[in-house]
Design brief:
By secondary structure, the chain is α/β, with parallel strands linked by helices. The protein has five helices and six strands, in the order E-H-E-H-E-H-E-H-E-E-H. Strands 1, 2, 3, 4, 5 and 6 form a six-stranded parallel beta sheet that branches. The structure holds flavin mononucleotide.
């Protein structure tokens, strides 16, 4: 099987963000699999216009083309005020049919809720974009001082990636067989 292209999207662009280490951890973990080819998409590298432009800018086109090339997504999100950060919503809204009929899994983090409120809101957003979201994900409670790469997290990441690659393979074949009906 041709490896599945999985875009790992780091959603926080905050200075001194935790998201960079967490995103690099899951990208490295996913890249150990034979069935995936990881594309690390860090939103800090995109100078998106603050106001939605009339025509896509170079940064918007660069981002949407990476979404278009992906067979599935791992979205790495913190929780900000019971939701996900504006940087992530801005990026999501710049693509549209590039998201369609593809799966997404989540790696979330925050304080005690480990980013679960952010994930639930992202599920609603991705439903609008015809994205299939994975039931299982990885949650990191930043108040828990344990190492990032522990056995519990590796097990959670494996479950999420097993589901994600199952859907990514099935939906890639389905998109090739017949145009999606959005
Ligand atoms: C504006 C803001 C709001 C936050 N709100 C929450 C929250 O509602 N729940 C939570 O668990 N953590 C919350 N946090 C803590 C963040 O999840 C934590 O600081 C995390 O490191 C942010 O991700 P980042 O470092 O990658 O930007 C908030 C942080 C910020 C900056």
């Amino acid at each position: 099987m041709r490896p599945l292209r999985i875009a790992v999207i780091i959603g926080s662009t905050r200075r001194a963000r935790e998201g960079e280490a967490i995103g690099h951890w899951v990208a490295e973990f996913a890249s150990r699999r034979d069935d995936t080819e990881v594309d690390l998409v860090d939103l800090v590298d995109y100078d998106f216009p603050a106001a939605y432009p009339d025509r896509p800018t170079e940064a918007v086109l660069r981002f949407t083309s990476r979404v278009a090339r992906a067979d599935g997504f791992v979205v790495v999100t913190p929780e900000y005020n019971r939701s996900f950060p504006a940087s992530l919503k801005q990026a999501i809204d710049y693509a549209y049919d590039e998201w369609h009929a593809k799966p997404a899994g989540f790696v979330s983090y925050g304080y005690r809720s480990a980013g679960m409120y952010a994930v639930e809101q992202l599920r609603a957003v991705f439903t609008e974009l015809h994205v299939m979201t994975m039931r299982d994900g990885v949650g990191v409670n930043l108040l828990d001082d344990g190492p990032l790469d522990d056995e519990r997290r590796r097990r959670a990441a494996t479950a999420m990636l097993d589901q994600l690659t199952w859907w990514a393979e099935a939906l890639r074949a389905a998109r090739q067989a017949r145009p999606y009906v959005s």
